[in-house]
Amino acid sequence: MPIGSASHIPMTRAPSILLIDSSAGDRTLARLLLERELPNATITMAPDALAVATALEAGVPDVVIVAADLAWAKVDHLIASLKRRAPNTAIVLFGHELDIASRALDPGLACEGLVRKNSTGFLALATIITEVLERKNGAAAAGSMNAAVSESASQRRGSDDLHEIALVFSHDFREPVQQIARLARRGQALQTTDVAAHTLRQVLECAERAGSMLDGMIEYLTVTESAAKPSPVNLNACLDHALDNLRTAINEAQAEITAAPLPVFVGDEHQLIHLFQNLVSNAIKFRGRKRPVVTVSCEPRGDQWQLAFQDNGIGIPQEFTERIFDLGRRVHTRDEYPGSGIGLALCKRIVERHGGRIWCVSKEGDGSTFYVSLPRHPNDIARPT
Q1: pTM of this prediction?
Q2: What is the topology classification, in CATH, of domain 231-375?
Q3: How far lies 63's CA from each of 47, 48, 105, 221, 341, in Å?
Q4: pLDDT tens digit sequence for 46-81
């Protein structure tokens, strides 16, 4: 449907936004901030070409936010293709300072807005999207979005503001950390003394560790503190989505993953995908020397669904099976198994927000089984499908 004038977007219809970005952390943060400020908007995230094609088949969006740097496509070619397919859709370029600067100089790049991936840009993203729609479709069409922004902003107080600031500035801190890592790698490529090489290696390890911690904190805050949107969710589809996100890790480890039919559950789809993704990712990471085998099952237990994620990995000493869900708690050193120590704390938070509980049964050297118990609601399907 053409969207070139205000008459094409009546105030009664929620605006649609397609966010194209190969960075999972940036997608999640942008979506959280957009949902907080524009609760009536429909937001679709596309991490790759297949997701973009699927989103466009579902309908032409009012605004497309495109990352200035994509791992799988040339951004100028993608924008040109989007313009050919939906000439009246507003395009907003979204990227780091250097990426934005290089793209902005391209005279053939037709964009209605530029947003930098820094604290100021993230906080202003929803307002900029509203202004773009207003210019594109008229003040009347964007009026409902402006009202939503004002209403949402008036509802946020104290801890919400601090939470938002923590998110965007954590994102800002990641940029200099990445720059330090790039400089260290460049230094390693030069002819250096043994002392200098050792120092650069330490700098690189510290930068990568700090980057991992920032990524983990951003993921924890964005996933666990975002407003839950409970609806009937097919857990089979959630698991499929999680496995798609882990496809590279699964292929590299040659992991074998099997799953029994899972039920429909009333919950937040976005958070449940993160839950499954973290549990399967953990099973692959802590695999030892064996090819990882992960089995996902589910059975009704009274008024609960009990899901089990069983692996054949290195296992966990029994004295740690409860403490591993604490924020930042690690059983192994970062040299043995890199990571932020936030993944299982995130799982616990998600499960508890859904009224359930999570626990682990394990023996060191003999694999682990993570159990997730979730309440069966009246709208749940009685048996796994």
Answers
A1: 0.53
A2: Heat Shock Protein 90 (3.30.565)
A3: 16, 17, 22, 26, 37
A4: 999 989 999 999 999 999 999 998 988 989 889 989
